[in-house]
């Protein structure tokens, strides 16, 4: 039997894909076993458990599993990088079950500097699903550390990281802005109010508006239970305002979203206040990226590995 | 015996001043008994302890002690407000020792909205020490929630709040930017690097640069122990950049600092990268403000209550 086991192994979670000989996903499993939350037995035990009853297939992983705190450190590769270049820098280790685990490198943007691990594989996987976007496209990967990225000629050409998700969690859990019952009740009006405040913050930026979440509440203009939604809008709105202000990301075509559906829905709603059109979010992009890299480096043999490519002058 | 006991009673600390009949500070005492960290026995016990052995004098307090979570809620007063107007809105309660405690209101800025409690008294106290600044001046009160304020004709005319100090603490204690040994070693180069990164962040703002603290460290360009200093520079630099970008605060004359000497020294250093001149910080401004308000409302009788005033058209 041929095929691939793909591992998207991040800081807080592990997702495993069993891909068949055509690169189609046969089964997906998820565990809360990020590299900082491993079960007893560490990486080997986590891998054995999450692939139990699956065939012994080549294994390719991406994400923080390749970081200094991971299973095997795989150095960052500088931009620009496409799947072939990523593949050329894959490193391997022998697991206790006697089979290898291959790990994709992360990317480094010398401008900044900035780094990513895992998102590069998601991005390049998404391109295999939408080859029309290979020549020139802009991508948003919302999350704890949101990434904005630009793809040119099939390679990741630029990206930046914003700590939007982590800041939201910190402010909600530990700051003076901890208010309300803690229930995540949707409040579209409060969310929109935050987005618009950030959008209209001009050159001063919304960083200076964080305290407004408290002042509006004290003023009776924002219910305590609505503060989280306002804050979410403020932070996502600032991510959009700030990223667009850099002029590093084209937005004259739909921006592509990759990630959790509920979070991506927030970004789509926020973007509507910037007159921006965000495409529907893509799921399981990492699996497709891992498959593509596995094909490039001959880890799997298939005739479907060559995605059509277009070129441009971006 | 005449005189005043002044209380600067905030969220995390309590400071008591014994002022003599001329408004001079005879003794100062501090306790970690902010309104959220009261000793057994609450407000009464804290007051009794911190004023032990002092004469029974009129008592005037400012700060979060007048908030909804305080001893007695004193509603915010809208801008603009001078000491006489603040005095007219003082409210009083009878403590268990049989004497009253009078509490100064906080200020509300309808533009924003925004609020302060305690800083208004420090500001107006500082003016009594520097009457030349009464007509038109800009003030920075660094802290957990930094305030930038403009004074016109002896009244607080505008202000804004930035959560600089709280954000620094959150990011240091709970985020992925927790690095290093935790020792607060001075690193002027790393601090300056953060300030300059924020200053040069342009319209995108430094909010989007937070992750650079990690990326620079992974890149080997910033030692783990230097991350806190870089982050401090980034946040204070962003406070300066953002506040100046609003054009609400004049900086063609020295900006006035009120607050902790070590923290104010950081602000002075950061401001030098903006070609800004910050005056030496003022201490015990709250005591002077409480004295002035006490004079205005007849809580103490003195001939020294009338500070010289200048007028302008700001």
State the gist of this model.
The structure is a homodimer of 314-residue chains. Chain A has 9 helices and 13 strands.
Low-confidence parts of chain A, pLDDT < 50 over ≥5 residues?
Answer: 304-311
The end-to-end distance of chain A, rounded to whole angstroms, is 41 Å
SS content category of chain A: alpha/beta
Instruction: State which percent range the strand residues of chain A make up.
Output: 15-25%
Oligomerization state of this entry?
A: homodimer
For this structure, the CATH topology of the domain at 162-272 in chain A is: Nucleotidyltransferase, domain 5
User: Can you give the mean pLDDT of chain A?
Assistant: 92
Q: Biggest protein-protein interface?
A: A-B, 42 and 42 residues
Description of the molecule:
Two copies of one chain form a homodimer. Chain A is of the alpha/beta class and 314 residues long. Among the domains of chain A are: 4-111, Nucleotidyltransferase, domain 5 (2-Layer Sandwich); 162-272, 2-Layer Sandwich (Nucleotidyltransferase, domain 5). In chain A, the strands form three sheets. The first copy, chain A, has a six-stranded mixed beta sheet with strand order 3-2-1-4-7-6, with helices on one face. The longest helix of chain A has 19 residues, at 227-245. In chain A, a hairpin with a 5-residue loop joins strand 2 and strand 3. Chain A has helices at 42-50, 83-88, 119-129, 164-174, 188-199, 212-218, 227-245, 261-272, 285-296, and strands at residues 4-9, 14-19, 25-31, 59-62, 77-78, 91-94, 100-103, 107-109, 114-116, 136-141, 146-152, 155-162, 256-257. Helices cover 32% and strands 20% of the residues of chain A.
């Amino acid at each position: 039997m041929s095929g691939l086991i793909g591992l998207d192994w991040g800081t807080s979670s592990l997702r495993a894909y069993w891909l068949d000989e055509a690169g189609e996903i046969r089964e997906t499993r998820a565990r809360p076993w990020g590299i900082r939350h491993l079960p007893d037995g560490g990486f080997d035990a986590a891998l054995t458990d999450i692939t139990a009853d699956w065939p012994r297939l080549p294994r390719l992983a991406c994400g923080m599993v390749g970081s200094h705190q991971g299973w095997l450190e795989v150095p960052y590769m500088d931009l620009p990088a496409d799947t072939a270049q990523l593949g050329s820098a894959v490193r391997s280790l022998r697991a206790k079950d006697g089979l290898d685990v291959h790990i994709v490198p992360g990317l480094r943007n010398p401008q900044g500097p900035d780094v990513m691990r895992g998102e590069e594989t998601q991005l390049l996987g998404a391109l295999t699903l939408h080859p029309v976007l290979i020549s020139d496209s802009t991508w948003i990967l919302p999350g704890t550390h949101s990434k904005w990225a630009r793809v040119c000629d099939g390679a990741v050409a630029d990206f930046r990281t914003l700590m939007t998700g982590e800041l939201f969690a910190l402010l909600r859990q530990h700051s003076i802005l901890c208010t309300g019952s803690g229930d995540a009740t949707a409040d579209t009006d409060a969310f929109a109010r935050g987005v618009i405040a950030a959008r209209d913050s001009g050159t001063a930026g919304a960083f200076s508006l964080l305290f407004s979440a408290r002042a509006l509440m004290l003023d009776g203009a924002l219910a305590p239970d609505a503060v989280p939604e306002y804050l979410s809008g403020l932070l996502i709105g600032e991510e959009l305002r700030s990223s667009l202000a850099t002029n590093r990301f084209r937005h004259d075509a739909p921006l592509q979203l990759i990630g959790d559906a509920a979070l991506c829905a927030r970004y789509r709603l926020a973007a509507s206040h910037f007159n921006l059109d965000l495409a529907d979010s893509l799921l399981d992009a990492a699996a497709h990226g891992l498959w593509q890299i596995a094909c490039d480096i001959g880890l799997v043999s298939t005739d479907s590995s060559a995605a059509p490519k277009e070129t441009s002058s971006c």
